[in-house]
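for the recovery benchmark. tokens below, seq after
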């Protein structure tokens, strides 16, 4: 007896087209990081990362030479553009290189880079567009954070939580991850070239809406070679952060609209 012939839908029998995995890139805004860069690089989970881009802001040490020896993609500024200006170059370069997730990591070995897989996992899962590596989900004092820095961080974080309607444990971290959607939605190039760039960016994310924010705990280390902002510069930074909060509140109340807090159309 002849066997029955199964009739399959030709389209259904075709294999699913292969899709490329998301491209995770690390950017490092660097200034005088020669003594810590190699240790930072050693902790990076290289099997997860497609590319590492270091932007040097006219370092006075051997940062560029060390970075090139490690095989990083190096961009060198011809004049110092500041911490925020450095990050603008970082994100421009990562987006141009096709990044789907961008991790910003300080190259001073202060933040534990082995936590990067946990940091980017919610973005890869589509659950968040901004992830922060928080020192305050652990005990930063045990890691050597000065008490005055601890208290000022707590105060500013409380003010920002109240203004932004969030419940984050920290806003002032040097380990962050962004989705491509976020970086092509907010006008980060309008932000300050100074340290307050990070807080302006968070305000932009909140103002844009629809860009979920999350955080994970990240151990931190304070030691002689790690970069640290001094007391006077921290006071300036704190006042600048409070100005960001005031600008955000005025914008949200429609009393003074800010171009920085107006989202742009996402790029492809």
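predicted aa per position
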């Amino acid at each position: 007896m002849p066997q029955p012939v199964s009739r399959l839908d030709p389209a259904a029998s075709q294999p699913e087209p292969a899709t490329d995995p998301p491209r995770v890139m690390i950017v490092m805004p660097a200034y005088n990081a020669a003594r810590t860069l190699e240790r930072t690089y050693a902790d990076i989970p290289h099997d997860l990362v497609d590319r590492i881009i270091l932007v040097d802001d006219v370092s006075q040490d051997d940062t560029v030479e060390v970075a090139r020896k490690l095989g990083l993609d190096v961009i060198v500024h011809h004049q110092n553009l500041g911490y925020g200006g450095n990050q603008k170059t970082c994100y421009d370069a990562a987006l141009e290189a096709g990044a789907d997730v961008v991790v910003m990591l300080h190259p001073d070995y202060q933040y534990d880079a082995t936590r990067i897989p946990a940091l980017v996992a919610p973005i890869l899962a589509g659950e968040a567009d901004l992830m922060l590596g928080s020192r305050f989900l652990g005990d930063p004092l045990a890691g050597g954070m000065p008490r005055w820095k601890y208290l000022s961080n707590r105060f500013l974080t409380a003010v920002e939580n109240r203004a932004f309607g969030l419940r984050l444990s920290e806003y002032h971290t040097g380990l962050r991850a962004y989705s491509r959607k976020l970086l092509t939605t907010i006008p980060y190039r309008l932000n300050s070239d100074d340290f307050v760039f990070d807080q302006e960016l968070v305000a932009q994310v909140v103002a844009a809406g629809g860009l979920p924010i999350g955080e994970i705990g990240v151990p931190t280390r304070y030691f002689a070679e790690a970069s640290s902002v001094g007391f006077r510069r921290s006071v300036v930074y704190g006042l600048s952060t409070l100005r960001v909060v005031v600008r955000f509140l005025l914008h949200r109340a429609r009393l003074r609209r800010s171009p920085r807090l107006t989202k742009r159309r996402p790029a492809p």
